[in-house]
Structures are given as C-alpha cells and as structure tokens.
Automatic annotation (TrEMBL):
Key words of the record: Electron transport, Membrane, Signal, Transmembrane, Transmembrane helix, Transport
Annotated transmembrane regions: 218-238, 250-269, 281-300, 320-340, 352-374
Protein name in the entry: Cellobiose dehydrogenase
Gene3D superfamilies: 1.20.120.1770, Cellobiose dehydrogenase, cytochrome domain (2.60.40.1210)
Length: 384
C-alpha cells in the first residue's frame, strides 16, 4: 500500500486505497477496463504497466488504447482464440483499421481467458511508458485513453494480424495515473479488490478554469508574501510607536488574502491530485502556522507591552516566527513556479528570474531597515 499522506486522510480518505483506475463505458458490468501502474514504474518512469479488459457480452473484438484519438494511439485489441484469448497490439494511424504493431512488448498474464461467457484479458505491457511514436507520463492525472468494441460472431483466431471490422461503440476517457499507482506486483489482477478501483473520468479537464485558479493563486500568494507581509512588518520600524494597531489590522487583512490563495491552491490540488508535492505541503504548514500562532503571539506581546512597556517572550517569538514564515512563503512561491514548470508558457524563465530579483531586493531592504532601526535604538539607549 502506498503511504497515506496526511492531507489524503483529511480530505480524500479514499486516496489511501486507490490503486487502480477503472472505466465502464456503459456504466454497468458488460464492459470494464482496469488500469494499474506499479510504484516502481511510477518512480522511474520506466517499466511495465498492467491493464485488464473484461467483457461479459459476446464480442467480436474489444480494445483499449493510449491516446486521445485513433491517430497515434498505442492500441491493444483482444478477441477469442478458440480456447483462450488473443492479444493483438496495434498502431492507430487514422480512421481505418489499426495494423499489427510488431514493436509492442505486451503479453497476456494469468487470469486471461474465456470464463462462462466473459472474455478477460489481463495484460502486462512493457512498451506503454515509451512506444514507437509516443510516451506516457506515469504522474499524469489526465492521461487520455480510448476504447472500442465490435459485437458479433467471435473471431476465434490466434493470429495477431486478423482483419478487424469497424467498431459498434467507442470513446475516450481520462485516467488519473496517480490514482492507478500501487505496490509492485507481477499480477495485480489476481484477487483484485474492486474497492481499490477508482473511476476514471470522462469529462474533459477544464484547463481554462484551472489556469484562472492558478493565476489568481499565484498573484495572491506572491503579493502577500513578497510585498504585503514584509512591508507591514517593516512599518513597525519605519514609523514611530503607536502603529501596532495598524500593523495588526493590515497583517490580518494580508492573512485573509493568503487564506483565499490557500483555498484556490486546495481546489487546484484536488483537480490534479497533487497534494503530496513539497509546494502544497509547505504552503499548508505556513498558512496554518500563520493563522494559528502569529496573531495570538502578536496580541500577547501587545498586551505585555501595555502592562510593562517592554518586550516579552512573545515579541521574540512573534518576530522570528513571522520572519521565518515569510521567508518560507517566499521560497514556496518559487517552488510553485517550479511545480507549474519554469520556462513554460505559464511561467516564462524571465518571470521566474524577475521574481527572484524582486524577492532578493525586498529581502535586502528588509535587512537594511532592520539594522538601521536597531542601530538607532542602540545610539538612543547609549546617549541615555
Ligand atoms: C477496423 C478497425 C477500425 C476502424 C475501421 C475504425 C474506424 C473509425 C472511424 C471511421 C472513426 C470515426 C467515427 C466517427 O467519427 O463517427 C473512428 C473513430 C474512433 N475510433 Fe476507430 N476504427 C477501428 C478500430 C478502433 C480501435 C481498435 C479503437 C480503440 C482502441 C478505436 C477507437 C476509436 C475512437 C476512440 C474514435 C473516436 C476518436 C477518433 O476520432 O479517433 N477504433 N474509428
Ligand atoms: C499573520 C500576520 C502577521 C505577521 C506575518 C506578522 C509579522 C511580524 C513581523 C515579521 C514582525 C517583526 C518585524 C521585524 O522586526 O522584522 C512583527 C512585529 C510585531 N507584530 Fe506582527 N505580524 C502579524 C500579525 C500581528 C498581529 C495580529 C498583531 C497584534 C497586535 C501583531 C503585533 C506585532 C507587534 C506588537 C510587533 C512588534 C514586536 C516587537 O516588539 O518586536 N502582529 N510582526
Ligand atoms: C469480469 O466482469 C464480471 C462482471 O462484473 C465479473 O463477475 C468478473 O469477475 C470479472 N472478471 C475478472 C477477471 O475480474
Ligand atoms: C518509490 O519511491 C518512494 C519514495 O519516493 C519509495 O518510498 C518507494 O519505496 C519506491 N518504490 C519502489 C518500488 O521503487
Ligand atoms: C490463457 O492464456 C494466458 C497466457 O498465456 C494464461 O495465463 C491463462 O491461464 C490461459 N487461460 C486459460 C483459460 O487457459
């Protein structure tokens, strides 16, 4: 079993058990597809993947393929051989019969056969991560696959090059390969626990909505951590005393901005099932810590100051905890850029460099202002 991630437990208890993705085109038992990526293959982006085709209806052929359409798809067609089933790897070239693909490395494994009218093909594929003309990224949460079925008289041939007639039904679905990942096994379909199969999706991923969320999330978090938090912290040093109330109010507003950004982040992570990356983990920790501790420590220091006129324990805690969280937040914005992909259209290299420069300049300014204010305080106390 994959190690359950804390956030998994909190939000999607189901992801602990998810080790297979399944798809039933007719929403019933007559035709089911099940896909499994072994953990070792996921780790290395290299190795076998497994899938099952299972039809309880008499079919001439039934097929599964990697790709969004026939053209370019890495296909696997299954039909009866007489006493068992034949697995025929095919390469899709267009809207005509896909031809036998001699480069494919795929084989039937135990459990395959025709049992009481049900055709089952359990397949181990060693050319499904990289194949002639394509690749699969095992971390892709929206991997497109195609399926098709032709009803009628069984073909009953062991020939892998049998002539196929056009399908009666076909379609595309999207496999979350992260949810199809589970422990290494030579045959994951032996004693298959149907409860560990999660449904593949049919609706097309809303890229536009996702892009909007991502942009808003990035803008809110960048502005909050690189600009607002540091500036409102420095306000205490730039302006004379009496400003704590302003600092508190403005920081609480900025905190609200980061909570909004966090909500968008969680929505995105849910869309693409990416909660266990460093970026969402660090982000969650920083936002949770800021909400839970920072205002409290600030208020406690403020109360202490009103009573004694001095700095208590909480002043140091609040100051250093605040500084560390701001720095973590700034780093995490960079990790977010990395997650989206530096040098992609969403994060051009120039934008990432500009971000680094701006964050660096603000960090330097912060240190200069702090040390100036510290020196001013020291000379003030020296002259007393
Ligand atoms: C004898 C073999 C085949 C023939 C003659 C054939 C022919 C066609 C034709 C004419 C279309 C367009 C249909 C339309 O738009 O209404 C089509 C679409 C499609 N076929 Fe096939 N097909 C064959 C095998 C397969 C196999 C084996 C698969 C699955 C592995 C498949 C999956 C699809 C899918 C998903 C589409 C819709 C996406 C696209 O346009 O490519 N077909 N096929
Ligand atoms: C999450 C929001 C907040 C953040 C990120 C934050 C951050 C900071 C930082 C970094 C400093 C130290 C500035 C420096 O010397 O580098 C500071 C000082 C201070 N903050 Fe906040 N702050 C927040 C909210 C609050 C709130 C709600 C109060 C409530 C009154 C507060 C009260 C203070 C006080 C009294 C100081 C001066 C402590 C001292 O004497 O050194 N802060 N804050
Ligand atoms: C194929 O599907 C039928 C109907 O859901 C099921 O009873 C059977 O166990 C499945 N075969 C395998 C090998 O899972
Ligand atoms: C895959 O990587 C994870 C950590 O990244 C590790 O815990 C696991 O043992 C690895 N599994 C295999 C089969 O290589
Ligand atoms: C069908 O062939 C596969 C692969 O060779 C084998 O593992 C399986 O036991 C066979 N099934 C039957 C019912 O003979």
């Amino acid at each position: 079993m994959p190690k359950p991630h804390l956030l998994c437990w909190l939000r999607w208890a189901i992801c602990v058990a998810a080790q297979f993705q399944g798809y039933a085109p007719f929403e019933d038992d007559q035709l089911t597809y099940t896909i499994r990526v072994p953990q070792g293959t996921a780790n290395l982006s290299l190795g076998p993947i497994y899938f099952q085709l299972n039809s309880t209806r008499l079919v001439q052929w039934v097929a599964l393929g990697q790709g969004a359409a026939m053209h370019g798809a890495n296909m696997f067609v299954v039909y009866t051989s007489g006493d068992n089933v034949t697995l025929s790897p095919r390469a899709g070239k267009g809207h005509y019969q896909p031809l036998y693909n001699k480069y494919a490395q795929a084989s039937l494994i135990a459990g395959s056969g025709v049992y009481e009218g049900a055709i089952t093909a359990n397949v181990r594929c060693d050319s499904c991560i990289t194949w002639e003309g394509g690749t699969e990224n095992p971390a892709n949460p929206f991997s497109p696959w195609i399926w098709a079925v032709k009803y009628g008289k069984p073909l009953n041939t062991a020939s892998m090059t049998a002539t196929l007639r056009e399908h009666d039904a076909f379609g595309t679905f999207f496999v979350n390969l992260l949810k199809a990942t589970g422990a290494d096994s030579d045959n994951p379909f032996i004693d298959l626990d149907r409860a560990s199969i999660t449904r593949a999706q049919t609706e097309i991923f809303d890229h536009e909505g996702f892009d909007k969320k991502r942009t808003a999330h990035a803008v809110l978090m960048t502005v909050a951590f690189v600009l607002l938090f540091p500036v409102f912290a420095l306000a205490l040093h730039i302006f004379p005393s009496g400003i704590v109330r302003v600092h508190a109010t403005l920081q609480l507003l900025t905190l609200a901005v980061t909570i909004a950004g966090f909500g968008l982040g969680v929505a995105m992570a849910k869309d693409v099932y990416l909660l266990s990356h460093h970026h969402p983990i660090i982000g969650t920790v920083v936002v949770a810590c800021l909400v839970l501790f920072q205002p409290g420590m600030g208020f406690l220091q403020h109360r202490h100051f009103r009573k004694t006129g001095g700095q208590g324990r909480f002043a140091y805690l609040h100051r250093w905890f605040g500084r560390i969280m701001i720095i973590l937040g700034v780093i995490n914005v960079g990790l977010g850029f990395q997650l989206t992909g530096v040098d992609s259209s969403a994060v051009p290299k120039g934008a990432a460099i500009a971000y680094g420069v701006v964050a660096g300049v603000i960090g330097l300014l912060y240190m200069v202002i702090i040390s100036l204010s510290w020196r001013r305080q020291r000379t003030a106390s020296d002259s007393n």
